[in-house]
Amino acid sequence: MRTPLVTVIVPAKDAGPYIGTTLETLTRQFEDTSALKVIMIDDGSRDDTGALMRRYADRFDDAVVLTNPRPRGLASARNQGLDHVDGDHFCFLDGDDWMQPLRLQVLSARLRELDCDFVRTDHVTVTGTKRMVKRAPFPWRERVASPRDAILPEHEPTMVDYPFAWAGMFHRRVIDQGLAGFSTGLFTAEDRPWIWRLHLQAQSFAVVDAPALLYRRGVPTSLTQVRDRRQLDFVRAMREVIDVVEADADAGRFLPKATWTVLALSSRHLVRARRMTPSLRGEMRSGIRELLGRLPVDEVDAVVGRLDGPRRRVLAPLLRRARSRA
After folding, report:
1. What pLDDT score does 317 carry?
2. Rounded-to-integer distance, Cα 245 and Cα 196, Å
3. Within 10 Å of residue 212's Cβ, how many Cβ atoms?
4. For a pLDDT cut of 90, what percent of the chain falls above it?
5. 162 — phi, psi (to 5°)?
6. Which of 3, 43, 111, 149 could form a disulfide with 13 if both were Cys (CB 3.0 to 4.6 A apart)?
7. Rg (CA), the chain
């Protein structure tokens, strides 16, 4: 069998209403169908997701369906897929999203022509019947750059604030360098430490134009819509971000950006925690308070001074407690 040009990793849990559309669009990605390998991971679904995956597997020249009896989470499911990558290029696609035709053919060609570690793209959000283009926050297109140069400035959106694993394509040397995998067991915010490692340690990347990936928002089974214990993984993910930055030889340069990210996202999760049960809300607040205590006071003060009033008010009580215990 011919080695594929691209391997696409498709993890899904209870995606029955959407997975057919997702996989159908993969049948239209290459003029030569043997160029694509599809790895599908049914992560403990209770609906017909697995059955639909197995049905679609017959539509591809090279397809693998992996089944987890119990959910292992998006991070672990993606890692399972990485173990089965063939060829030089790979990418991710979530089970409720879809692609315009020939997106992967275009991305593979650009990755080969630019000879960089990975390429990133814009994407289109879909909320009901409304569609909106979300641009990758990097000013240069079709130009190879250092991923480290796309991390700053700290107070503006940059590529580490655009952590979507499915918004691009990667050369397999990213796997060989240990940069492709996600932190095992993270159920939410798994892409935050992943994107920081990628931009701190990979050698080259580019933002390119390509047919769109369409990202479905407001899906009921999405973790962005639930308020259970899995949301507590946000704290662990942010700890890992701080660990990755502090271990870097140029930590002093990038710690202000990490501080900004932790504070901005913590304020958002504190607001969302109001809809959790009292016990989970208490755990979230305790975890974030510990997280804030790890950040340098001068950097925190600088960031808080730039935040809007509502976010400052949400963070203020936990910042006071974190400092009183320091």
Report:
1. 85
2. 8
3. 16
4. 76
5. -125, 70
6. 43
7. 20
With 0-12 / 13-18 / 19 or more C-beta atoms within 10 angstroms meaning exposed / middle / buried, residue 176 is: exposed
The pLDDT assigned to 82 comes to 98
Tell me the C-alpha distance between 303 and 317, whole Å.
16
Quote the mean pLDDT of the chain: 93
Separation between Cα atoms, residue 293 and residue 290, nearest integer Å? 5
Looking up tokens 């063939």, which residue turns up? 86
pLDDT digits (tens, 9 = 90+) for 95-105: 999 999 999 99
Count CB-CB contacts under 10 A for residue 208: 23
183: number of CA atoms within 13 Å, CB side? 24
CA–CA gap between residue 226 and residue 257 (Å, rounded): 28
Each as own residue / partner, the long-range contacts of residues 248-251 (CB below 8 Å, 24 or more positions apart, any chain) are 248/200, 250/148
Judge whether 145 and 206 are in contact, CB under 8 Å. Answer: yes
Question: Strands 118-120 and 6-12, how do they pair?
Answer: unpaired
* pLDDT at residue 44 is higher than 60: yes
Residue 31 has pLDDT above 80, yes or no: yes
User: Among positive and negative, which fits the CA dihedral 285, 310, 191, 117?
Assistant: negative
Residue 231 tokens, joined: 């949301």
Give 266: exposed, middle or buried? Use CB within 10 Å, 0-12, 13-18, 19+. buried
- Res 104: pLDDT: 98
Q: How far apart are CA 56 and CA 67, in angstroms?
A: 15
Ranges of beta strands (E only) in 226-324 are: none
Contacts (Cβ under 8 Å, ≥6 apart) of 153: 257
